[in-house]
Amino acid sequence: MCRTVDLHQAVLAKNDENALALRGYLGGRGTVAVNLLSSPGSGKTALLERLLARAVEVGTPAAAVTADLATENDATRLARSGAPVQQILTDGLCHLEAGMLQRRLEGWLPEGTRLLFVENVGNLVCPASYDLGETLRIALASVTEGEDKPVKYPAAFGLAHLVVITKTDIADAVGFDRETFLRGVQQVNPGVPVLDTSARTGQGVDALLAHVLRCAAGDERHVPVLARQHERYLHSHENGHEHPHADGHEGADGHPHPDGHPHAREAGAGPSREQAQGHPR
Questions:
Q1: Cα(104)–Cα(197) distance, rounded to whole angstroms?
Q2: C or N: which end of the chain has fewer Cβ atoms within 10 Å?
């Protein structure tokens, strides 16, 4: 068991290093990365296609990388927007890692790209634990998935800078209880903004692009509750306790958080080495 835990720690430590390097690389190019997380079938690809097309229409240089276990179907769909697109095939891996993204971007990312959208593997568990060097992390959920997604997957929604509801054009037809969903979101991530969208009607697409561009311009983004808790943990351990972290952060040594919550790094969007939901990967 200890050996397994050590291996997990080593994998996440290496990912932290890669994410830090990738964040610096993107920052040097003036590119802002947006990490999109959702379960399969949430409508993430359809919404991203509309978002990319809108960015192209208004003259915002945008590109996308999409990840799947198999097939290049999503890359083909996204390319219809007119934006540059690349596919990553994870060959069975349930999440993207910073090193995988970095290798795909090398020699490809067009000069002048302002926004880089990263469509993560459809999964609300593993991807939540991996920092991809992003500036903005968005968790998406469709009205067809049920109102309890945020409380069932607190790491995915609790570490998001923005929550997006998709397929709102059929909300009434499926009996979606928006108020219950919003209560769940606020329970795991108080204060996080929530946007309603529909890829079919275009609802919320302009608002979503505007939100991303404001963050890219340096406007203050929402700080997830897990990140704030981590900051308090660090401050309470400044004197007398040192917790080295692979990328210069502290507090990722496996000790439990005083209030029972796992650690999450405020830099970027990814959590620390402990999986935020407390389950082994």
A1: 29
A2: N
Per DSSP, the residues of 135-182 read: SEEEEEEETTS-TTHHHHSHHHHHT-SEEEEE-GGGHHHHT--HHHHH
* Closest among 270, 281, 203 to 23, alpha carbons compared: 270
Q: Give the CA count within 13 Å in the CB-facing half-sphere of 66.
A: 23
| Closest to 32 in 3D by CA, of 272, 205, 269, 226 | 269
Give the type of residue at 105: L
The owner of tokens 């991807």 is 127
Cβ atoms within 10 A of the Cβ of 216, count? 18
CB 270 within 8 A of CB 159: yes
Hey, which residues does 68 pair with through a beta bridge?
A: 89
Look up residue 239 and give its two tokens: 């004197």
Half-sphere exposure of 141 (CA within 13 A, CB side): 25
Question: pLDDT of the chain along its 281 residues, tens only?
Answer: 556 666 667 778 899 899 999 999 999 999 999 999 999 999 999 999 999 999 999 999 999 999 999 999 999 999 999 999 999 999 888 999 999 999 999 999 999 999 999 999 999 999 998 999 999 999 999 999 999 999 999 999 999 999 999 999 999 999 999 999 999 999 999 999 999 999 999 999 999 999 999 999 999 999 998 877 645 544 454 444 443 333 333 333 333 333 333 333 433 444 444 434 333 33
Report how far residue 30's alpha carbon sits from residue 112's, in angstroms, rounded to the nearest whole number: 7
